[in-house]
Amino acid sequence: MSANPHRMPTLFLGHGNPMNAIEQNQFHLRWQRLGQQLPRPKVVLCISAHWETRGVHVTASEQPQTIHDFYGFPKALFSVEYPAKGDPELAHRVADLLPAHKVGLDFERGLDHGAWSVLLAIYAKADVPVVQLSLDTGQSAAFHYALARQLAPLREEGVLILGSGNIVHNLRRFSYDDQTPFDWAVEFDEVVKSKLASHDHEPLIDYGSLGQHAPLAIPTAEHYLPLMYALAVQDETERPQFFNNVVLSSISMTSVLIGA
Question: Which domains are seen in the chain, by residue range?
Answer without folding.
Answer: 10-258 (3.40.830.10)
